[in-house]
Amino acid sequence: MNGRRLAAASATMLALTGCSAGSLIPGASPSPTPEVTYDSVTELRDAAVEDGYDCPDWRQTNVVKNAAQSGNCSSADVFSIYLSEEDAQQTIDGVKSLGTEVHVLTGGNWIINAPTAELSSLKEALGGTIVQYSGTVRLIHSACG
């Protein structure tokens, strides 16, 4: 296979897997896929709703610690956005310390805490990483392995 065909085949594989080119080069470290970020919690909510998430009673509450904005569609979920990925990580670390079972979808500068059954379809639509907390954190499903 010549160089152009190999490059085209590699680009097609990347498009299908959503992974970066760095992960296909032997001996090279994979480059992380950039996460989508949102400017407001309503923008995050709108993206979820656009992809089929049920949001019967939106309330922007802004009560989540470290979050720039937060809100919920029902008593079963919480949407939050952060000024930085570090702020989002602080919230994740705080949840880990609670010792209760929690499942979240996180990416870029946002976190969605929603029923477990909803997280897979949200991940498919929005990207990110599903993380489960039950005393200790376990990675359930990430964007690129």
UniProtKB/TrEMBL annotation:
Source organism: Propionibacterium acidifaciens F0233
Keywords, ordered alphabetically: Lipoprotein, Signal
Name recorded for this polypeptide: Lipoprotein
Matching PROSITE patterns: PROKAR_LIPOPROTEIN (PS51257)
Cleaved signal peptide residues: 1-21
